[in-house]
Design goal:
heterotetramer; A alpha/beta (142); B alpha/beta (321); C alpha/beta (466); D alpha/beta (192); C: alpha/beta; five-stranded parallel sheet; three-stranded antiparallel sheet; globular; D: four-stranded parallel sheet; 6 helices; elongated
């Protein structure tokens, strides 16, 4: 019990067309998941630059989720192809800088996959709870 | 492949033919059966209705006795299989139950962790660990000309979803592989009455009569079962049912392992033939001298389609629901 | 139907499927595959000679619901629109065995063309209405009702065809042998609907069509008709009244779920018949009833490919697979994707009046957009910081819309705003942070994440600048 | 800079889980927030009026609404503030229904999350810039997919209004399920 004193802070970048709608569907279906995740809406997962993910960790997030449309279903035709290609490189970069790469979750969630979204959040939150806080936020103010 | 083997009480007495034939068939298929040392009764169907904790403990003791290096146990009896499966699952789902059961087991210096041993029915093991092709490869003397119907009863197919519980089809496929003529028996998954014979004989006879009457209409040479309880009810009470209803049924009730053994070329005596009450002599006779024209009769009749008749829907392929 | 076929403003593309959709509200580009009919549409007069002479008969699982036959070259039904047949290449003797060509010989206008190929056409439209309908529940999935095993178990759709004067039996209600008139008929309601094992929802039309079938069967055969129902749901204008009319006609109603339909007899009165085993919840008894015919009132399911179709048009489905409307009450025919509307059973089970109303409503929504003449499009486009851009061209490669050009003279990238859809993929690709997406700038997103991550503490940190 | 923050109850959809009054009180202390209110239905015309009135009387130049998903009502509110003379991009929404009240059960947790989402929106909106909508003409042609009764009806309405329609049907004929039925309930008239 004493291990669970810490609640990870998670930021999710969700594409407006599939994953954000999937998260909305999870809500409409009243599925439950932990409140740790805060969702930031982006037009396309392709908008999420590696720098933005690293910045999110630096700002104090313990985990980052990047969710987009399934490959082939991108609202912007091929935006998520870029995401798919970019993220493995980013993982290597994260490891290099000492951030465990499993703190970054990249997944395709469609607008009809509310249950998948809720399940993904549950599992990711649980996984991060088992890990120590990242604590990268560079500030001393309280 | 090695399996822990739990014969259960019936297979020592009235269903000895099942035990004998299963062991012989397993040998042919290359299954190594390791009988659980010092096993006890599974409590059958009654004990769970009387006192839950001792009932679970009774079953868990057998699971605890499964040798460490084995992770699955085969039970030919549907009730034994069902009790073991249920005990394992419920202990996993209800930690309080698991703790209480283990407290009881501790008196005998035993312990069982739910999930360690997978309980399986003999029918499932044979049909899942071996393909029909593999089984077919062992067939030396096909059951040509024998009209057989598969009878699963209610317990065999119900807990684990190996087949459609409402309308299973796998034993039929097995019998076809053995070369038999399989007839579609609607009541394949209906209850045989279980121990109703001891509680209310008239009701039980009604249930047994229902099963026998509809099998008889199909002109079967035998009903093929996978459960000692089903076999017992339909076989041992067939005479009573006949006198009760004034019927004259003569339907041998045999185990699927006996039919496999026959097709594999094993001597009937080694498969427990002769222990049944409704004699299977005629079945063996037909097996030894199959009627030659039987094979050709079934086909062309189906072809002659009535010109008025409306088409039938195609059967569902794949069988998934 | 005829009106739609004749209307000068309607281009009818039957035997066709949409392959891809691109663009946005106001300006979609749609690629449509027009499958080869193997019949030249301009030459065919719809005389039907080919159908009469085709030697190949196949069971018609679509229009006749499996109860009747059609030929390999066929029109689904006599009044088909258009009246031009197609050759079903999977069953045609010429296409499968290489010989026959009878239709080619008998066609008086030489309209048969075995070499015809699929054609792809591209159309530009401003709006899209999806009315792709439903699939009937496959009754074979409930084996205890015996559909597909017992000849005299029928689906309600088969009965519809049987009752049709133009159907396989010429309107006569008979058993599968094609001649015996049933004396007692059981109609089992809620087959596949209101059932946790299959579909939890109510299919809305089955109660009413079951009442109608009961009435018509009774009327045509004088058979005793038993309805096995959970609840009778008759909400609609004149619906409850119709229920009472059917009650008064002497149709029987048994409230309870049917456990199984069997051909196994328990007594002489059951021999040779089907037996319905059920619980009568009004008497609390388990009962059996021998009947001659069983009709399964099958429910409505989303089209088997509804999820793929939804993806194609960029809309979503609900958990069951029905197309999801923008708002269940306030916006029932729009979707979350502008310019894409839904109508009819594709959105959920509904009866004919509701389907027609939704079709008209969807059209009205489209007309309102057309009436406005123009539509607002993305203002949140990408923009290049000319001082930062080194002209590497990464963004140009990343852009899915070819909306970024390279200015040779100044050696920088430039966004063509009219083409930019605002996805921001270029931003993710730019190595020198020279391109940004309006309304989704790094600064805006970073401040949003700060607020989300550590709340009020931001105020204190704020003075340290960004 | 003057920001107005509006927390929607959505009846009991949000207010049943999130302490909306608390979120509004707390939001009032966020940087540059001039007013923070909670209201039963922000998307109603009264709710929209509330925002417009504040823009005019308090001189708000940024607006944050915390309610349902922006995929539903973002255009509604953007239109409202535009009517009050504000650039519609000086607006941000916090999704405290689909992604908060409906997916969390504990009031304290949900209220804390709602606060974080509101703060995120406030901090974001401070950096918004005015943008101008582009307008494009609408192609008057319509694609109708599915030639059943609903599709036929839609196609006829549009065609009768004088606009071109492409009616695509997978089967060789239009008509759909309706063509299979002979008599329909409750009037038993023929369906063809």
């Amino acid at each position: 019990m004493s291990e669970q004193t810490y609640e990870p802070k998670i930021v999710g970048f969700l594409c407006n067309w599939c994953s954000y709608a999937g998260a909305d569907l999870a809500g409409a279906a009243r599925l439950k998941y932990p409140p740790n995740i805060k969702i930031i809406r982006v037009p396309c997962s392709g908008r999420v630059s590696p720098e933005l993910v690293i910045r999110t960790f630096r700002e104090g997030a313990d985990g980052v989720m990047v969710l987009g449309c399934h490959i082939g279903d991108c609202h912007y035709a091929t935006g998520n192809h870029r995401t798919a290609r970019r993220m493995p490189v980013l993982r290597a970069l994260l490891e290099f800088t000492g951030i465990e790469s499993e703190r970054l979750l990249v997944k395709w969630v469609s607008s009809s996959e509310g249950e998948l979204f809720a399940q993904t959040v549950r599992e990711f939150t649980e996984k991060l709870r088992q890990m120590p806080p990242l604590g990268l936020r560079m500030t001393s103010s309280k | 492949m090695r399996y822990a083997y739990y014969p259960g009480c019936s297979l020592e007495k009235n269903a000895a033919a099942y035990d004998q034939s299963f062991r012989r068939v397993a040998e042919v298929l290359g299954m190594e059966l390791v009988e659980i040392p010092d096993w006890n009764c599974c409590g059958a169907t009654e004990y769970f209705s009387l006192d839950l904790l001792p009932a679970y403990a009774l079953v868990a003791r057998n699971l605890a006795l499964v040798p460490e290096d084995l992770d699955q146990v085969v039970a030919p009896c549907s009730a034994c299989y069902y009790n073991m499966y249920k005990t394992d699952k419920n202990m996993a789902a209800y930690p309080k139950l698991a703790a209480a059961v283990n407290e009881a087991l501790a008196a005998g210096k035993l312990h069982y962790d739910p999930g360690r041993v997978l309980s399986r029915h003999a029918l499932d093991v044979i049909l899942e660990d071996f393909s029909l092709e593999e089984i077919g490869a062992h067939v030396k003397k096909p059951l040509r000309g024998l009209r057989l119907a598969a009878y699963y009863g209610c317990v065999t197919v119900r807990p684990a979803g190996h087949d459609d519980p409402e309308y299973p089809v796998r034993m039929e496929r097995l019998l076809e592989t053995l070369g038999a003529t399989v007839v579609e028996y609607t009541l394949r998954a209906n209850c045989c009455g279980g121990h109703m014979t001891q509680l209310d004989a008239d009701t039980a006879y009604g249930m047994i009569h229902y099963l026998l009457h509809n099998a008889n209409k199909l002109g079967v040479d035998a009903l093929v079962t996978a459960c000692p309880m089903c076999q017992l009810n339909l076989d041992a009470y067939q005479g009573q049912v006949n006198s009760h209803f004034g019927t004259d049924f003569h339907i041998p009730i045999l185990y699927f392992t006996q039919m496999m053994g026959l097709a594999f070329g094993i001597q009937p005596e080694d498969l427990g033939f002769g222990q049944e009450i409704v004699s299977a002599k005629e079945v063996l006779e037909k097996f030894r001298n199959p009627p030659p024209e039987e094979e050709k009769r079934g086909r062309p009749r189906r072809k002659r389609r009535d010109k008025d008749a409306l088409p039938m829907p195609e059967p569902l392929s794949g069988g998934d629901r | 139907m005829m009106d739609a076929g004749r209307h000068p403003n309607i281009t009818l593309l039957t035997y066709s499927e949409v392959e891809s959709v691109s663009g946005y509200v106001g300006n979609f580009v749609v690629r449509i595959r027009k499958r080869a009919r193997s019949v030249k549409e301009d030459l065919c007069t719809g005389c039907g000679t080919c159908e009469e002479n085709c030697p190949r008969r196949v069971v018609d699982t679509v229009y006749e619901a499996g109860l009747g036959y059609r030929t390999a070259i066929y029109r689904p039904f006599a009044q088909a629109v258009p009246a031009i047949p197609v050759i079903d290449r999977e069953n045609c003797l010429y296409f499968t065995k290489g010989k026959c060509r009878i239709c080619e010989k008998v066609c008086p206008t030489h309209a048969i063309d075995y070499t015809q190929e699929d054609t792809i056409l591209e159309v530009e439209v401003g709006n899209i209405i999806l009315a792709t309908g439903f699939d009937p529940f496959d009754a074979r999935r409930i084996p205890q009702f015996g559909y597909g095993r017992f000849p005299n178990v029928f689906t309600s759709l088969e009965l519809e065809r049987m009752l049709s004067g133009a159907g396989p039996t010429g309107g006569k209600v008979v058993l599968r042998d094609g001649k015996t008139v049933p004396q007692r008929v059981a109609i089992i309601h809620c087959v596949g609907s209101r059932d946790k094992n299959y579909r939890e929802y109510c299919s809305r039309v089955c109660c009413m069509y079951s009442l109608k079938l009961a009435h018509l069967i009774h009327h045509k055969t004088h058979a005793e008709v038993y309805n096995f129902y959970i609840d009778i749901r008759a909400p609609g204008k004149m619906y409850e009244e119709f229920y009472h009319r059917v009650l008064d006609e002497g149709i029987h109603f048994v409230r309870g779920k049917v456990a199984q339909v069997t051909d196994a007899a328990r007594g002489p009165e059951e021999e040779g018949r089907l037996v319905v085993q059920f619980e009568d919840t009004l008497t609390g008894l388990q009962r059996r009833m021998p009947v001659d015919m069983v009709v399964l009132a099958i429910g409505l399911e989303p089209r088997h490919d509804s999820r793929e179709v939804a993806r194609l048009f960029g809309i979503s489905t609900d958990a069951d697979g029905w197309f999801k409307e923008k708002h269940p009450k306030l916006d029932p025919v729009a979707t979350m994707t502008d310019g894409v509307f839904v109508a009819g059973c594709a959105q959920g089970p509904k009866d004919i009046p509701d389907s027609v109303a939704q079709g008209a409503a969807a059209a009205a929504r489209v007309l309102s957009l057309i009436g406005q003449g123009e539509v607002e499009v993305e203002a949140a486009t990408a923009v290049v910081d000319e001082l930062m851009c080194v002209g590497c061209g990464q963004c140009i490669q990343a852009c899915p819309y070819s909306a970024i050009e390279y200015l040779e003279d100044r050696r920088i990238a430039h966004v063509i705003e009219a083409l930019c859809k605002g996805c921001g993929t270029c931003v993710g690709a730019c190595p020198s942070k020279a391109i940004s997406l309006r309304h989704f700038t790094d600064q805006q997103l970073i401040w949003e994440m700060r607020g989300a991550i550590y709340g009020m503490q931001v105020q204190h940190a704020e003075h340290r600048g960004n | 800079m003057k920001i107005g923050v509006y927390i929607c109850h959505c009846g009991s959809n949000i207010a049943g889980v999130v302490d909306v009054g608390e979120v509004a009180r707390w939001a009032a202390d966020l940087p540059d927030v001039a007013v923070a209110r909670d209201y039963r239905f922000m998307c109603s015309s009264l709710g929209q009026e509330l925002i417009k009135k504040d823009i005019e009387e308090l001189g708000l130049d940024r607006v944050v609404v915390a309610s349902c998903t922006p995929r539903m009502h973002e255009p509604t509110f953007q239109r409202a503030i535009a009517e009050a003379g504000l650039n519609p991009y000086f607006f941000e929404m916090a999704n405290i229904r689909e992604q908060c009240a409906w997916v969390h059960e504990d009031t304290e947790e949900a209220t804390e999350k709602a606060k974080a989402l509101v703060e995120a929106a406030v901090l974001r909106v401070r950096h918004h810039e005015p943008l101008r909508e582009n307008r494009v003409p609408i192609n008057p042609a319509t694609l109708v997919v599915g030639g059943g009764i609903a599709g036929i009806q839609a196609a006829l309405e549009l065609a009768n209004a004088g606009y071109p329609v492409y009616l695509v049907e997978r089967e060789p004929s239009i008509g759909g399920r309706m063509a299979q039925l002979d008599e329909t309930f409750p009037t038993l008239d023929c369906s063809a």
